[in-house]
Amino acid sequence: MNKHKPPLLKASRISVTRGDREILKGADLTLNSGEIVTLIGPNGAGKTTLVRVVLGLMEASSGELERQANLRIGYMPQKLHIEPSLPLSVDRFLSLTGCKTEEIIANLGLTGVEHLRFSPMQALSGGETQRVLLARALLRDPQLLVLDEPVQGVDIAGQAALYQLISRIRDERHCGVLMVSHDLHLVMASTDTVVCLNQHVCCHGHPEKVTADPAYLELFGQAANASVAVYTHHHDHSHDSACESGEQHA
Q1: What are phi and psi of 88, to 5 degrees?
Q2: Helix axes 101-110, 126-138, angle to 10 degrees
Q3: What is the pLDDT of residues 168-182, one digit of tens each?
Q4: In what order do the strands lie in the sheet with 201-205?
Q5: Which of 6, 128, 144, 223 is the 20 to 30 Å CA partner of 71?
Q6: Is residue 58 pLDDT above 60, yes or no?
Q7: How many Å apart are CA 170 and CA 105, to the nearest integer?
Q8: DSSP string of the chain?
């Protein structure tokens, strides 16, 4: 990660209020090229809300959002619903983006599902669907990948393989990756920085620091901390992000 380059995006003190309900309060988020940042937190913590603000799909009630000029973003949604009676092959689904056939083939090959190009979308397994969605997000060579629950509906072995693939894509394309996840085990091995949300940023930093933070333990408990302690995380760059308390971000 080149710390001399400006970040791909920087969100400062983002708050979102709907009616009298505060969904998100004073959240900060910075994402650099070549960095994988994962948002974790309980249901209703504001993870999807923060992602929508970052994508420009939702306007913040207050705060500032800076994005690199002409930033190319690839987005992988949490769920995909296709009408069962609709005849839609993988190739047709991806061609709806307007991308060329060679781009479609290349990205299906990258995600390991080129052999499914002419299969019906409705016939795909959970893991195959996620890999097709990842291929779609990679079309047009994004500088930032935003992945909302990328391993949803995938078995444990498939989850590990998918996280490894995401790490490899980051390494090969040097793109930034923003992931949303409920998973606390496998995702940690593929993450540079964790941001723990519960309407505000409870703590953030390197996974090892976050999983030892009292705010994290209060949300997820000692059992979760034990389950993530077995992972290994090795990179050839250093991390200087410190886990900080929620009061510093609120």
Answers
A1: -135, 110
A2: 130
A3: 999 999 999 999 987
A4: 73-76, 144-148, 176-180, 36-40, 193-197, 201-205
A5: 128
A6: yes
A7: 19
A8: --TTSPPSEEEEEEEEEETTEEEEEEEEEEE-TT-EEEEE-STTSSHHHHHHHHHTSS--SEEEEEE-TT--EEEE-S-----TTS--BHHHHHHTTT--HHHHHHHHHHTT-GGGTTSBGGG--HHHHHHHHHHHHHTT--SEEEEESTTTT--HHHHHHHHHHHHHHHHHH--EEEEE-S-SSGGGGG-SEEEEESSSEEEEESHHHHTTSHHHHHHHHHHHHHHHTT-----SS---PPP--GGGT-
Can you give the length of the chain in residues? 250
Closest CA to 246 of 221, 208, 220, 210: 210
Q: What is the pLDDT of residues 70-114, one digit of tens each?
A: 999 999 998 788 887 888 999 999 999 999 999 999 999 999 999
Does the pLDDT value for residue 24 go beyond 50? yes
What is the sign, positive or negative, of the torsion defined by CA atoms of 232, 238, 241, 242? positive
For residue 238, pLDDT beyond 50: no
Distance CA 245, CA 250 (A): 9
**CATH assignment, 1-72+143-158+174-250:** 3.40.50.300
* Joined tokens for residue 4: 């001399």
* CATH 3.40.50.300 segments of the chain: 1-72+143-158+174-250
